[in-house]
Amino acid sequence: MAKKNEPRYDADGFQRTMRTKDYMADFGGQLALGLMGNIVGQMSYFYTDKVGMAVGAVGIVMAIAKVLDAFTDVIFGNVVDHSKGGNKKYYRWMIRMAVPAAAIMVLMFTMPAGAATPIQVAYALITNVLLTAVIYTMIATPFSAVMVVRTKSQSERSSMGVFRAVGSYGAGMIIAIATIPLTNLLGGTQSAWIKYGVILGAAVLLLLLICYNNGRKASFVSEEETASAEPEEEPVDFKPAMGMLMRNKYWVIVLLFNLITAITNAITGSSGTYYCKWIFGNDNLVGLLGAAGMLATVIGFVLSKPIIAKLGVTRTVSVGCLGAAIAAGIRCFAPSNFIMYTVTSLLGSFIQIPLMCLYGVLVAMAVDYNEWKYDKKLVAMSSGAIGFGNKVGSGIGSLLLSLFLVLGSYDATLEVATTSMRYAIYGFSNYLPVVINVVMFLIFRQFDLEPKLPKMREEVAARRAGK
Fold first, then answer.
1. CA distance 425 to 277
2. Which of 80, 290, 310, 349 is the most exposed place for a label (fewest CB within 10 A)?
3. Could you count the other beta carbons within 10 Å of the beta carbon of residue 191?
4. Strand partners, 100
5. 129-133 contacts: CB < 8 A, separation 24 or more?
6. 10 Å Cβ neighbour count for 7?
7. Given the DSSP bridges, would you call strands 8-9 and 15-16 parallel, antiparallel or unpaired?
């Protein structure tokens, strides 16, 4: 027992604070957030094919929701930074929002099917704003900040990143594999989707409660330092804090990175259903493709940590972006070939999995730069880059998908897709990912912080010692 309780340190000399149960609880919290976030990707299909909303109306709803949602993460991050309660404050919002999170997962699907278009639009807008701008934000923003304050060990932060990526990607896989087959099994009607929402809501509630219970009892390595040498950071007002972040080019790059990644994920989350239904003629194939992707996913996550250790953060991101662009580009040459679609989709997912493990690590690096440049960490506001990028990106992705469908004269009542519908689906499924991933690669070439961090941390430590 004495040996078990002895302090543990990583190769850089930072104390380790994480145990297996901590990683698992953290994984559960991210899985719950992933279920909430990924269900948005299915809403376009639900709105158009299950309750009969016009494609253009769906695009407008998603766009307005994300405009309203655009700055809630950094605003709420500033609220968290101003709140008291030490490190425990980052978990406090999880317990407050657990029941509303479960409820909104059901309410998303209870839209009045026979109502007039304005009523449907209003209902869709309100529920989407509640899900993403309010409930998701109040959980995800402080939860993202936990990675920064929970441990100073880059190794443990990377491990947390892997577990969170597994949770996020696992949620996406669950939604992709289960949604269409399960709702079809339950009858394929709106009622079936409501029952599906009840299942998801119960899972979200349980996972958030488990994560909160572990977090409220967790020990943070910074607590001892805060008590002895480092007082709780004095909060910075929103306007000057936002100015600091906008002058931190690395935070801006992370923001754009999350934004563009979320656009890709939003399109991917919906495109598979349209692709299988209209190109391959059977929407149940979505479940089969998702199940096949589990093998690539498992292998990808097993190899993620050694790949990141070998390539480093920056090169891992670059390889992931270029690899995904190449995979989507190959698919363009035989877009209606099921085997080609399956292989390139799995290859693209596998290549990007290590990249997904780095969201929190990149934010933590930007926070370290804040501390070096401004002597202010701005932990929660900086962490808002993840939520801001994810939600705005998912909205832009949904809007782009709707735009392609409008241009392709999409008609959900047809038995067979028209030529324009097929090319619209090819456009957002194959051609757009090539462009997006190349743009992300070019943006990330400016992220040169990784080799500079050790010296910056030494200077921060010396500065504190001087004080």
1. 11
2. 310
3. 14
4. none
5. 129/65, 129/68, 129/69, 130/100, 130/104, 131/36, 131/39, 131/40, 131/104, 132/37, 132/40, 132/65, 132/66, 132/69, 132/391, 132/394, 132/395, 133/65, 133/68, 133/69, 133/72, 133/391
6. 8
7. antiparallel
**Amino acid present at 434:** V
At 371, list the tokens: 């501390």
Q: In sequence order, what are the beta bridge partners of 16?
A: 8
pLDDT of the chain, 467 residues: tens digit per residue: 445 556 666 655 666 677 888 889 889 999 999 899 888 878 888 988 888 888 778 877 877 777 677 667 767 777 777 777 666 677 888 899 999 999 999 999 999 877 888 898 899 999 988 998 889 888 988 887 787 777 777 777 777 877 887 888 788 778 878 888 899 999 989 999 999 999 999 999 999 999 999 887 776 654 444 444 445 566 777 788 888 888 898 988 888 888 887 788 777 767 888 888 899 988 878 777 777 776 777 777 778 878 888 888 888 888 888 998 999 999 999 999 999 998 998 888 788 778 777 877 888 888 888 889 888 887 777 776 666 676 677 777 777 888 898 899 988 888 889 999 999 999 988 999 899 899 989 988 888 888 888 888 888 888 877 76
Residues linked to residue 9 through DSSP beta bridges, in sequence order:
15
How many other C-beta atoms are found inside a 10 Å radius of the C-beta of residue 51? 18
Domain boundaries, the chain: 18-221+234-466
Whole-angstrom CA distances from 56 to 47, 52, 138, 265, 270 are: 11, 12, 30, 21, 16
C-beta neighbour count of 229 within 10 angstroms:
10
Q: How far apart are CA 312 and CA 292, in angstroms?
A: 29
456 in Cβ contact with 375 (< 8 Å): no
Secondary element (H or E) of residue 8: strand 8-9
Name the one residue in this structure whose structure tokens are 């027992």: 1
Fold of 18-221+234-466: Growth Hormone; Chain: A; (1.20.1250)
Query: Helical H runs in 70-136?
Result: 72-82, 89-107, 117-129
Residue 121: is it exposed, middle or buried by C-beta count within 10 angstroms (0-12/13-18/19+)? Answer: buried
Write out the two tokens for 222.
């910074």
Asked if 26 and 165 touch (Cβ cutoff 8 Å), the reply is no
- In whole angstroms, give the CA distance from residue 377 to residue 380: 9
Identify which of 119, 108, 107, 133 has the alpha carbon closest to the alpha carbon of residue 53.
119
Q: How far apart are CA 353 and CA 184, in angstroms?
A: 29
Rounded Cα distance between 288 and 271, Å, is 15
